Automatic annotation (TrEMBL), chain A:
The chain crosses the membrane at residues 305-327, 339-366, 372-395, 402-422, 437-455, 467-487. InterPro entries: 7TM_transglut (IPR025840), Transglut_i_TM (IPR025838). Residues 23-182 form the Inactive transglutaminase fused to 7 transmembrane helices domain. Pfam families: 7TM_transglut, Transglut_i_TM. This is Gonadoliberin III. Residues 255-498 form the 7 transmembrane helices usually fused to an inactive transglutaminase domain. It comes from Halomonas aestuarii. It comes from the Bacteria. Keywords: Membrane, Transmembrane, Transmembrane helix. The keyword Ribonucleoprotein does not apply.
UniProtKB/TrEMBL annotation, chain B:
InterPro entries: ATP-grasp, RimK-rel_E_lig, RimK-rel_E_lig_ATP-grasp. Keywords: ATP-binding, Ligase, Manganese, Nucleotide-binding. The keyword Repressor does not apply. NCBIfam families: rimK_rel_E_lig. This is Alpha-L-glutamate ligase-like protein.
Length: 501, 320
């Protein structure tokens, strides 16, 4: 019987688990460690216009995830307006509409942006060249002279753009440039000149992020393309490259705001930055429901909390498997320690241990009496269950009276499991003596404590909850452990006498 | 305190993990487990195959039937009550003799009828069965054990565990009950294990609680002179259990009855590894050798093969 399919399955599990985890880390910037802080910007755009009294339609560009920033959540406040989010002309836009609007109108759009330095550069198709514009005299000669001057001093599209823009900056402004600026706005003029020289370029609008700023406006920047690459230029200084704190708001070369049925429209921005734990930042990420993004984060919060615990169970089970297969520890009930460890998570360790020992000890004493009554087994265990509930109630009330609120958490113990434990321990005591009870009970408790330490580790909690691929890795590891034919640690002690002679 | 995996490996010791995966998992078909996990089934099967077992006094299958246990026991001097699906010797109650309305265990402890009834009731509820499923209680006649072993045991019947692999007896040990083991022959409860030479049926060495012993802790009798009579029959009986159950890796527990000779007490599809301690030798070389043997060899030839290849001389001092 070939073991090859088995190893293939294990390899498949491990590889897909690692791949899924890395995919989640790279694609969604889920950090590997829980402590990491991430900067989040809250940006609010306020649209103001004076409505004419009839139907009004407002169309505004919206930012999308881009190099350096990832959009988390967005909200709008616009009473009386219908709202639609549109994907058009390579950008996202919001469209507000209403039948009747008079007077000053205010619309709000707010967005949470996560600073994500390692987000990939999105590839953008270069826009088509705009060449249908005809210059009027004398601007045509001025334009061609400016282009020629910059062309001769450049090597490629990007250096050409730099030279061209610098000709329009204050210190080096020539006659031609000054002439052109009297007639045209700077940014559209630059784009037009670039296009005329066969350099694809377009205007984009960006927001300079500065914490606590209010009433900011968008600034115009120029994107210049060469092959599939694009570079951002500041049309005022000729500076090349995207400043770190620049969020591109509109990057499709369209108008930022279009208002129909209103006048005097403007949009301004306020923003504030804050740091929040990376895990929380990830949680508020907009979820695209694809299979690869299969995520628990799309569930309601309550169910998420439940899953956080459920996803820890394999970790506890792994601890049990390790201790049994590699160490050889005896426990009473295979996965009872995992359930006890789950209870410890609710009660905290010391309270849990004390509570467990108290309940089991008192339970054993009472069970000892029950054994004189000659009851049927199931009835006896049921009696033990009721006894355990009674013990727990008494302890809770006593703890509360003494002001020990921790004592109340004892109710988190799985009572039926506790009862069976007491029953088994009692039988074990009768048949094999207190030593075996100590060995098995101690083994169970030690396993439970180790499982608790593993499951309660913040790092492990973070990893298991955020990376579902880890479950596949665990599966692979456990399959491998199930295939281990070597010695257990305690067997090295047990079989020692044989090797001595 | 500790040894190294390399030294254990050199000795050919197999560990739990290897036993479970390499031998039990590979050679014992799950489907066949009920034959050995249910002692009643084993008994009936053994009768079909002409393998001697202790007499069955009766069975208790319902809680209602518990009340009739007194009638069933009447007239029997000593008996054993055991769960059909018990494991590891759990739930076995040995009554050596009956005095009036008192049932006396080998340890001298006196039980009332109620105690016995409660024990049977517990068995029926599944307290001792694997997985806690409802069970059946078997009542068997007490073995009239061979007086020649009286010196080697304390309050109980010694039994002989033979590991049978693919029908070949590979290793054997005798388990002697002690005061610590309450008349039962379970090593982890403190019984003494004595390694037995497959070729001759004589003692090789002894262990208690995994430590070497040369004498019985209670009777003080040395173990070296231990010799099992009718060894050939016992080996054949053990080897025959392979055909009977189809299980490749099997622990057979035999007892020697004064009148009826070797008989099969029970079978175990997951025999423990303490037999290696008792023999001072790992199972692995023997199992490897058997794995290279062809299938379909008759029991007599298998026994002959084992006796030829697995002969060992005693490590115990010869009696002065």
């Amino acid at each position: 019987m070939s073991r090859l399919p088995f190893y293939l399955i294990v390899a498949l599990l491990l590889v897909s688990g690692v791949a899924l985890s890395i995919h989640r880390h790279v694609q969604f910037e889920v950090p590997w460690t829980p402590g990491e802080q991430r900067q989040v910007w809250d940006i609010e755009a306020q649209v103001n216009f004076v409505a004419d009294g009839g139907p009004a339609k407002v169309n505004m560009a919206l930012p999308s995830s881009q190099q350096g920033y990832r959009i988390l959540t967005e909200h709008t406040a616009s009473p009386g307006y219908g709202l639609a989010f549109l994907e058009q002309q390579g950008g996202r836009r919001a469209e507000w509409s209403t039948r009747e609007a008079t007077g000053d109108q205010q619309l709000y759009y707010s967005v949470q942006v996560l600073v994500a330095p390692d987000a990939r550069k999105t590839s953008i198709e270069p826009p088509p060249l705009q060449r249908d514009n005809v210059w009027e005299s004398p601007y045509d000669t001025a334009a061609s002279q400016v282009i020629e001057r910059a062309w001769s001093r450049s090597a490629d599209h990007f250096t050409f753009a730099r030279e061209l823009i610098q000709d329009f900056t204050d210190e080096r402004q020539g006659e031609n440039a000054r002439l052109l600026l009297t007639q045209f706005d700077r940014a559209p003029l630059l784009v037009r000149l670039l296009n005329q020289a066969d350099v694809p370029a377009r205007e984009v609008s960006g927001l300079v992020l500065e914490s606590g700023r209010r009433r900011q406006n968008l600034m115009t920047w120029i994107q210049v393309f060469e092959d599939q690459e694009w570079v951002l230029f500041n049309p005022r200084t000729g500076e090349r490259g995207r400043p770190d704190n620049l969020l591109l708001w509109e990057s499709a070369g369209q108008a930022v705001l279009e208002v129909e049925g209103g006048s005097n429209s403007r949009v301004n921005f306020s923003m504030i930055s804050r740091n929040q734990p990376a895990a929380a930042a990830v949680r508020s990420q907009l979820a695209d429901d694809t299979l690869l993004n299969f995520s628990i984060h799309s569930l309601p919060l309550e169910d998420q909390a439940l899953f956080q615990t459920i996803l820890l169970i394999p970790i506890g089970a792994l601890v049990v498997v390790l201790l049994r297969v590699l160490v050889g520890i005896k426990t009473s009930g295979t996965f009872m320690p995992v359930l006890i460890a789950l209870a410890f998570i609710q009660t905290t360790l010391v309270t849990g241990l004390v509570g467990f020992l108290l309940v089991v000890a008192v339970g054993l004493v009472i069970r000892n009496y029950l054994s004189y009554l000659n009851l049927l087994l199931v009835a006896r265990v049921t009696a033990v269950i009721i006894t355990v509930i009674a013990i727990i109630s008494v302890f809770s009330v006593l703890a509360y009276r003494f002001g020990l609120n921790a004592g109340l958490t004892i109710t988190f113990f799985p009572m039926i499991i506790l009862s069976w434990t007491i029953e088994r321990m009692s039988i074990l005591w009768e048949e094999e003596g207190p030593k075996q009870v100590l060995i098995q009970g101690g083994g169970s408790l030690m396993t439970a404590v180790l499982a608790y330490l593993a499951m309660n580790n913040p790092w492990i909690r973070h990893i298991t909850f955020n990376f579902l691929g880890v479950q596949l890795i665990l599966m692979g590891l456990i399959l491998l452990l199930g295939n281990y034919t070597g010695y257990r640690l305690l067997e090295l002690r047990r079989f020692k006498p044989v090797t001595e002679d | 305190m500790w040894t190294t995996p390399a030294r254990l490996h050199a000795k050919g010791i197999i560990g739990m993990n290897r036993r479970n995966i390499r031998y039990i998992g590979r050679y014992n078909n799950r489907r066949l487990y009920p034959l050995v996990d249910d002692k009643l089934k084993t008994k009936l099967l053994a009768q079909d195959y002409g393998i001697t077992t202790p007499d069955l006094i009766g069975t208790v299958t319902t809680q209602f039937g518990v009340k009739h246990i007194r009638g069933m026991l009447a007239g029997h001097h000593g008996f054993v009550i055991k769960p059909a699906k018990g494991s590891g010797g759990k739930g076995i109650l040995v009554i050596e003799r009956v005095e009036g309305d008192r049932y006396i265990k080998p340890s001298g402890a006196r039980l009332s009828l109620e105690d016995v009834e409660r024990h049977v009731s517990n068995i029926l509820s599944g307290l001792y069965s694997l997985g806690g499923s409802p069970d059946v209680a078997l009542v068997e006649a007490l073995i009239n054990f061979d007086g020649s072993f009286a010196e080697y045991t304390y309050e109980g019947v010694p039994d002989i565990r033979v590991i049978v692999f693919k029908g070949y007896p590979v290793m054997a040990m005798m388990r002697l009950s002690t005061a610590a083991s309450d008349g039962k022959a379970n090593l982890h409860q403190g019984a003494v294990g004595v390694g037995i030479d497959i070729a001759s049926g004589t003692a090789i060495r002894g262990v208690q609680y995994d430590r070497t012993r040369h004498d019985h802790p209670d009777t003080g009798h040395e173990l070296a002179s231990l010799r099992i009579s009718d060894w050939e029959t016992l080996m054949l009986l053990a080897a025959g259990c392979y055909e009977m159950t189809g299980l490749g890796y099997l622990g057979t527990d035999m007892v020697l009855d004064r009148d009826r000779g070797p008989m099969l007490l029970e079978l175990n599809a997951r025999p423990g590894l303490a037999i290696q301690m008792a023999n001072g030798e790992g199972l692995r070389p023997r199992l490897d050798l058997i794995e290279r043997q062809p299938d379909g060899v008759p029991a007599e030839e298998r026994v002959a093969f084992s006796r030829r290849h697995f002969a060992r001389s005693s490590e115990l001092r010869e009696p002065a």
